[in-house]
Design a protein that fits this description.
CATH superfamily: P-loop containing nucleotide triphosphate hydrolases
CATH class: Alpha Beta
CATH topology: Rossmann fold
Number of strands: 12
Bound molecules: adenosine-5'-triphosphate, iron/sulfur cluster, magnesium ion
Order of helices and strands: EEEHEEHEHHHHHEHEHEEHHEE
Shape: globular
Mean pLDDT: 89
Strand content: 25-35%
Distance between the termini: 21 Å
């Protein structure tokens, strides 16, 4: 069972659709979950299932102009982010909720030194200037265990190793002490050892700061190692969620079971989720009823009647499948 704790983020029925000439792609289509203080939630699912768009929607950074959040609630510390103005969101992003893209080069600006980029965030969110600002920037690099932080502040991104750049991005994000960090590793090209060290660092910081983390990954091994709870996404919805222990030991949704059955072992590292038979549905023309129906080995007549409601099969373990009703 998951320990009771303060709910930091409460997402209800989030819907983000893309309006294109070829129709409406329902990238996120009724996503609900809760994240407690200090908790790490793993978000897994095949490519295109809507993980990144869920993360970007929480920050209100959905690609424009095609993408639009068409419904739902995103309550961060009690406040619904979907009703905030763009100006308010600029203040909230970074300060309360941040996203770390796992490719550090996309998050760092090559023409400014690291010190400037770390200081910029601290200045914007804490208003510090002069020596106190630079001291704080140095402290941020020390926190993510960059050696000789004072000298490193002068480095440009290309003068740092991949692992150090990753830490520098971590420093930028964490120096603002957000309540929630979304780490999206789906485009990872990072060395395995570097990544493991980085994840450990996030864990350590979390222990000291009660940061809540959403970890987007294809890697069940990382979920097992890093996360308290896991949510499995399929075609824009969460089909199963629960504590890592419970869900890995007693997967209830046929999709989760198929994924877990095809993982060779939890220790092996995977760039992609193992493939299971068939293709995910086109998000512009979803099948009637359960979206996994065309690929499901346990399909039944009632599976096409309607989308299966969410059932709590064990404490905090939720499943959307007619088979568990
Ligand atoms: N700019 C866009 N225009 C139209 N549709 C888009 C656009 N960006 C994303 N989508 C749709 O949103 C869906 C979800 O994309 P998303 O990036 O969230 O997937 P993901 O689960 O993060 O996949 P991956 O594991 O490959 O990173 C895609 O299948 C695609 O149909
Ligand atoms: S609802 Fe039916 S088709 Fe969908 S996963 Fe469950 S058994 Fe399979
Ligand atoms: Mg993605």
């Amino acid at each position: 069972m998951v320990a009771e704790g303060e709910v930091t983020l409460d997402v209800k029925d989030l819907r983000t659709h893309f309006f294109t000439r070829r129709g409406v792609a329902k990238a996120v289509d009724g996503v609900s979950f809760r994240l407690r203080r200090g908790e790490t939630l793993g978000l897994v699912g095949e490519s295109g299932s809507g993980k990144t768009m869920t993360g970007l929607s929480l920050l209100r950074l959905v690609p424009q102009p095609a993408g639009r959040i068409v419904g739902g609630e995103v309550r961060l510390l009690g406040e619904n982010l979907l009703t905030k103005s763009q100006a308010e969101m600029r203040h909230i992003r970074g300060r309360l909720i941040s996203m770390i893209l796992q490719d550090p080069m996309t998050s760092l600006n090559p023409v400014f030194n690291i010190g400037f980029q770390v200081a910029e965030g601290i200045h914007a969110h804490q208003g510090l200037r002069g020596k106190s600002l630079w001291d704080k920037a140095e402290e941020a690099l020390r926190l993510v265990r960059i050696s000789s932080p004072k000298d490193r502040l002068k480095n440009y991104p290309h003068e740092m190793s991949g692992g150090m750049r990753q830490r520098a991005v971590g420093a930028i994000v964490l120096s603002c002490q957000p309540a929630v960090v979304i780490a999206d590793e789906s485009t990872t090209s990072l060395d395995v050892t570097i990544q493991a060290q980085y994840l450990q660092l996030l864990r350590d910081i979390q222990r000291e700061s009660s940061l809540s983390i959403i970890f987007i990954t294809h890697d069940f091994g990382i979920v097992a190692q890093m996360c308290d709870r896991v949510a499995v996404m399929y075609a824009g919805r969460i089909v199963e969620s629960g504590s890592v222990l419970d869900l890995f030991d007693h997967p209830a949704h046929p999709y989760t079971r198929a994924l877990l059955a095809s993982v060779p072992n939890m220790e092996s590292r995977l760039e992609r989720l193992p493939s299971i038979e068939g293709q995910p549905p086109a998000l512009g023309s979803l099948p009637e009823g359960c979206r996994f129906r065309p690929r499901c080995r346990e399909v039944d007549e009632k599976c096409q009647e309607g989308y299966p409601p969410e059932v709590e099969v064990a404490p905090e373990h939720f499943v959307s499948c007619w088979g568990v009703m």
